[in-house]
Amino acid sequence: MIYITLHFSVIISGTSGDIVMTQTPLSLPVTPGEPASISCRSSQSLFDSDYANTYLDWYLQKPGQSPQLLIYEVSNRASGVPDRFSGSGSGTDFTLKISRVEAEDVGVYYCMQSIEYPPTVV
């Protein structure tokens, strides 16, 4: 069994108040080949009606490495990200799914809002 460690809560400071991002579960034991799902909730909507986009991104920080972008704007895979990763959701509720977990997927997963700048992690 391998472990995917998930970051639990991130506060992103923005000009119109703090957006609180909460992830569950705190950690998730998974067996290679099985699916995994991570939930993320925002304290306010991440939908920008001016641009008709929702600004929710997912990052993975592997041990000893810098965070890498997995998913941007809810469901778009970044370049080079395997198709076993997918993102979904809208408004304030989002999900990252891994269809078949591999050993290389171990790390810390972050959801981050990018609707307000600067997107500073406190």
Helical stretch tally: 0
Number of strands: 14
- Give the helices and strands as they follow along the chain: EEEEEEEEEEEEEE
Reported CATH architecture: Sandwich
Attribute tags:
122 residues, mainly beta, Immunoglobulin-like, immunity
Question: Layout of helices and strands, plus pairs?
Answer:
Elements: E1 2-6, E2 9-13, E3 19-24, E4 27-30, E5 36-42, E6 47-48, E7 53-54, E8 56-61, E9 68-72, E10 76-77, E11 85-90, E12 93-98, E13 108-113, E14 120-121
Describe the fold and architecture.
The mean pLDDT is 85. This protein has a single domain, classed as Immunoglobulin-like (Sandwich), CATH 2.60.40.10. It has no helices and 14 strands. The chain has a 6-stranded mixed beta sheet with strand order 4-1-13-8-9-10, with no helix packed on it. It is an all-beta fold. Pfam families: V-set (PF07686). It comes from Macaca fascicularis (Crab-eating macaque). InterPro entries: Ig-like_dom, Ig-like_dom_sf, Ig-like_fold, Ig_sub, Ig_V-set, IgV_Light_Chain.
What does this entry show, briefly?
With 122 residues, this protein is an all-beta fold.
